[in-house]
Each structure stands twice: as structure tokens, then as C-alpha cells.
Specification:
Two copies of one chain form a homodimer. Chain A has 336 residues and is α+β, with helices and mostly antiparallel strands. The first copy, chain A, has helices spanning 5-13, 20-23, 69-86, 105-121, 171-185, 199-210, 216-222, 236-247, 262-267, 270-279, 295-303, and strands at 33-35, 42-44, 50-58, 90-100, 125-133, 137-145, 162-166, 228-231, 250-254, 286-290, 309-316, 321-325, 328-330. In chain A, a hairpin with a 6-residue loop joins strand 1 and strand 2 (42-44). In chain A, helix 3 runs parallel beside helix 4 and helix 3 (69-86) packs parallel to helix 7 (216-222). In chain A, 53% of the residues are buried. Chains A and B meet through strand 2, strand 3, helix 3, strand 4 and strand 5 of A and strand 2, strand 3, helix 3, strand 4 and strand 5 of B.
């Protein structure tokens, strides 16, 4: 079934109701929305500085054709939530611009379900958007508040600060590898990999890729103590490099301290796992720096979220990002 | 020449400077920007309710392949400016998400020139965005302020209110017709239309299409007096229909009062011109309603901008949008 733009918006995205009433734009004062979906623009009522980001996903570039619609809806918002997490901001309002080849009711329903699953979890109100015909792309603009006017940037790191990451790294990149292996297997009689990998570990790695958990609560808590932060979307070495460039310093990463999940080590060798952890993006963990004097405050900040935080190195006087193993500089492991 | 994302942003879009300094995110306090391009998100400092909109342009859907890059950059922002104009809001901050097949330096330079031509005219700061590989699409998110907390919606119209439009209608739709005629002529020996149309009029109509003037100052001035407003992007009858639906009323349009430009009447018959004016979008004029008691205040509001405003009808008790000619109901003229 093919649907018109207004009907799609009314049916799947305008959740305040249906029919004419929805177009009368009842305010949702509790969420700071003075005017929501259905006019030329939305109106919000901020109570301080706002943090604003936009991210675009293009079929064939950021996701494979045929990706499940709910996973795409979830992911489109997750990517922007992760940006706000890296700023230490509280997400509040989203706009959604998307182009679709054809407006399939079932697909849109599942897309909306994935999007709102994550939006509801973080109290994000969808306040507007644009829907048009075209190649499949999804662009989310996300607006959040900087609590107490405080926010994190990439630029606040100082030489001597500790470098940390949340959670564990490399799972999403390993998940991509597993999915492409499976795609290859579909063309063979005798799957060469399936038997060798524990099902639970495969599932865990693929879930990290398809439903990443943006570290929103952690970012908010760290806004009080971190000196600089970035989300790991391009890979640890690349993103830590951006942080260093903005902070005008270098960094040392101690390879043995980079956190690897049990699932990742179940399926891959330690060398391969480290390569995924250093070079693979898409985990949407946070990488941040903090003064050594604040080590205990860092632990306290993330205690409530129960997310582990590992110190993996420190910021140095220039020299880019250097990897160390057992106290010696080494080349970063490459994917095998 | 093909360029990387960071280099493109630095060279064409990050106008605060070049090199590392640009990434240190110097605040642009005068424009309310606490953190601009180059981090995970931007930070702005609003001083009241914000009006937020997003619009997406897709090649082959909203513009033809091969459209001049500067016109595309201009248009992408103009469309969103027009939405804020219809809200009576003052535009302040923009984010730009775009996908391009290939990053051509010359093309990007001209795109940025067109975008900033209009951004500068309206004091809009580009604070962030996303640039990726993909089919050519441009999505602008625009954030503005509602002065004194006041903004216009489609929903405030009351039965008996006068209906007005700014400027004149139909030029852009006529411009599309002329451009497609010219494209057809390119394949013939003896152009059938060229001789019949005054060059100045052709140029004027095509300019309305390629470089529309969003009625930002007019919208701001009207925020104090209009009861409802919408921008004419889909066509007068369609957009007035949206206003009526949101305001739970109908409307009568007196055809002889719909303003037509001299250029439009130079090239087309009055019937054809009226058809373009009623059905054609892309003029980005404002259609708004106001109490008859406020007729003089409406004139005063737009006096400074020197844009003409014409009363074309009034809001009625239900019944959709009805066209009248010489006091009789008529079917809306169709394009010939």
C-alpha cells in the first residue's frame, strides 16, 4: 500500500492523536513543545543553552539495502543521541527528514516503532520533519539541553589527563564481519563458519551493531567531571585523534587496557578483537578525558548507569595517537 | 577534484577560520553561538521560544539534475526561511545535511556561495551539519526565535477574517513551464516560443523560480497582527486549504483579486496566469488571515518591506476553499 505524506505523518509519526485535532497543534507543555507536528515549523520552549546535531544515513553507504525497518528507525536516532551524549547534553526534541522510494505502510509502521522505542526511552519528542520521495535516506536533527549551561567538547583535554572509554569496543565491527560472512554463506552448501562460533556470542555482536546503546546517561553524568569527550563512531584511534586535534595534544593508548567483550573474545582471537576495537566504529561508546585527580569522581559519575568505564591511556604533549603494549610503542593491530 | 568530508567543511562551510583554531570552537557570542562547527554537536544560547523546521530537497524530485550549484544552495535555505517566515519567526541558526555523489571542489564552492548569500542576508549562522556520499540531496534544519514569544500558526484563522497574500503568485510555476519549453526547443531547429515572449518577462519569471525571496521581514511584521499564516509552497488553493483545515473553517477566493505580476501577464493569457497563481507552488509568498478590523494594521506591518499585500478573500463557515468570479462561484481555472 502506498500512502501520501500527510497520511503517513498522521498515522505513524503524529502521536498526539488523529484527525483535525492533531492539526490544531495542542501544546505538549510537559515536554517543552509549544507547537508540534503539522504546521510550517515547530515551536519549543528551552530553558537554557541548546545542543544541536544532525546525522544522515544513506542506503548503501551507512546501511545495507534491505535493513530491517525497525532497526533503521532505531539506529537513525541512536546516532544522534550518541552525539548529544558526547556533549554531555540531555536530548529533548527531534526532527526527522526522510526520503523513501515508496511509502509502504508495513515498512513505515516498523520504522516508526524502532524510532519511538528509543525516543520514548530517552524522553525525546518528535516535533516535525519532512517526508519526500527519493532514494532511501534518513536524517535526524536532535536538540538537547545543556544542564546548568554545562557541556562537553572535544577541545577541553589537557596534557596528563587520563583517557577513558565506556563499555567495550569492537563488537559492532565484528558484527559487520559476521553478517557479511553469513551473507556469503547463503551462497554455499556447507557453511564454513557457523559451527565454530557460539550462537550467544554471534547474537550479542550483531545486536551491538543493529541496536547500539547510546551512552546518554553516562554523558550527562560525565559533563560534570570530564575535560573532553567524543563518541566512538569512526573507530577509537580516529575519534581519539579528533579529540587530540581539538585539544592540541597527543595520546598514548595501552592496548591491553582497551576493553573487549566476552562475546568478542569468544568468536575472535585477541589480536583480531583488538583490531576491531581500535579501528571499528559503530559501537557508539564514549571516549573521554579527565584529570587524574578526578579518577574517583569519574567512577562515581557512571556508577548509577552500571556501565563500566576503563582507563585506556593518557593525553600527551603532541605526537598523535600512539599505541603501547607492555610499555613499548607498537603499530596498531590491523584487522585480520 | 574530490575532497574528504573534513576538508570540505573546513574549506567551504566553516567560516570562522582555518586549521586547528577552527576546531577549538571559538564562540560567536554575538550570534548566540556558544559552539559552532567541528564538534559532535553545536551549542546555541536562545533567549526565548524557538521555532524549528526542516526541509529536504532531492535531485530529480525537487530539482532537476544539473541545477546550478549556487541556485541549489540558495534554494535549500530559502525553502526553510519561508517556513519560518510563515511562523512569524526570526531565523538564527542552520544545520546542513547533504549527500553528494562526488565532492567536486568547484561545485561545492558555488553551492556554499549560494547558501551563504542568503544566510548572510538574514543573519543566519551555519552551526553544523553532516556531509556524506550518496545521491544528491540537501536537508536544511533552521532554528529561529519567536520575538516576544509570539508566533503564527495555520490554526488561528476565524470565520470572517480577511485572507491576504504577499507579492504576486504564479511566476515560479510559469518559470518551470518556460524552462521546460526551452529544454524542448533545444531539440528543434526553429524554436516556436522564443520570439513570442519578451526577454525581460521570461527572465523575471525564471528568476522567481530559481531565486525565490522568502518573506522573512514580512512574516516577522505580520506576527503582531495576522490570525493565521502559511507559506505558498504547494499552490495557493492547496496551502489555503491547509490553513482552513487547521483553523476549522472554509474560504472564498475572489479570482480577480489574486495578484499577478506584469511579467506573468506579458507571457501568458489571464486565464493561464490565474491557473498558475492558484495551482502553482514555489513562489514562497505568504498567505495569511487577519481580522477586518486590523486591515490598516496589516498595511502598516508590511510598509517597511515595500512588499505589496493583497486581500484576496475571506474565511467562511466550512465548505473548503471556493473560487468566485464577479460574485459567482466558479471552478478553479486549470493550467492550459
Amino acid at each position: 500500500m502506498s500512502l501520501g505524506e500527510f497520511e503517513i505523518i498522521r498515522r505513524y509519526f503524529d502521536r498526539r492523536g488523529t484527525g483535525a485535532a492533531a492539526w490544531r497543534a495542542e501544546p505538549d507543555a510537559e515536554r517543552g513543545v509549544l507547537l508540534g507536528i503539522g504546521d510550517d515549523a515547530a515551536v519549543i520552549d528551552p530553558d537554557g543553552p541548546l545542543v544541536v546535531t544532525t546525522d544522515m544515513l544513506v542506503e548503501g553507504v551507512h546501511f545495507l539495502a534491505g535493513m530491517a525497518a525497525d532497526a533503521l528507525g532505531y539506529r537513525a536516532l541512536a546516532v544522534s543521541l550518541s552525539d548529544l551524549a558526547a556533549m554531555g547534553a540531555a536530548p529533548r526534541w527531534a526532527l526527522l527528514a526522510m526520503s523513501v522510494e515508496q511509502a509502504e505502510a508495513r515498512w513505515l509502521e516498523r520504522f516508526a516503532a524502532g524510532f519511538f522505542e528509543l525516543a520514548d526511552r530517552h524522553g525525546v519528542a518528535l516535533i516535525g520533519g519532512d517526508l519526500t520521495r527519493g532514494p532511501l535516506t534518513v536524517t535526524v536533527q536532535l536538540i538537547g539541553t545543556a544542564r546548568g549551561g554545562r557541556f562537553l567538547t572535544r577541545a577541553g583535554g589537557r596534557v596528563g589527563d587520563d583517557v577513558y572509554v565506556t563499555g567495550s569496543l569492537g563488537d559492532a565491527a565484528a558484527g559487520i564481519e559476521l553478517l557479511s560472512r553469513r551473507a556469503a554463506e547463503d551462497h554455499t552448501e556447507d557453511p564454513p563458519f557457523r559451527a565454530r562460533e557460539a550462537d550467544w556470542a554471534r547474537a550479542a555482536l550483531e545486536a551491538r551493531l543493529l541496536r547500539p546503546t547510546p551512552r546518554v546517561a553516562e554523558g550527562l553524568a560525565l559533563a560534570e567531571v570530564a575535560s573532553a569527550a567524543i563518541d566512538v563512531s569512526d573507530g577509537l584511534l580516529a575519534d581519539l585523534g579528533h579529540l587530540c586535534e581539538a585539544s592540541a595534544c597527543g595520546a598514548v593508548v595501552e592496548l591491553e587496557k582497551v576493553p573487549l567483550s566476552r562475546a568478542l573474545l569468544e568468536v575472535f582471537s585477541r589480536d583480531a578483537a583488538q583490531a576491531y576495537a581500535l579501528g571499528g566504529g559503530d559501537d557508539y561508546e564514549l571516549c573521554f578525558s579527565a584529570s587524574p585527580a578526578d579518577a574517583e569522581r569519574v567512577r562515581e559519575a557512571v556508577r548509577d548507569s552500571r556501565t563500566e568505564v576503563h582507563r585506556i591511556g593518557r593525553l600527551t604533549q603532541g605526537g598523535g595517537v600512539v599505541c603501547m603494549r607492555d610499555g613499548h610503542g607498537v603499530a596498531p593491530p590491523r584487522r585480520v
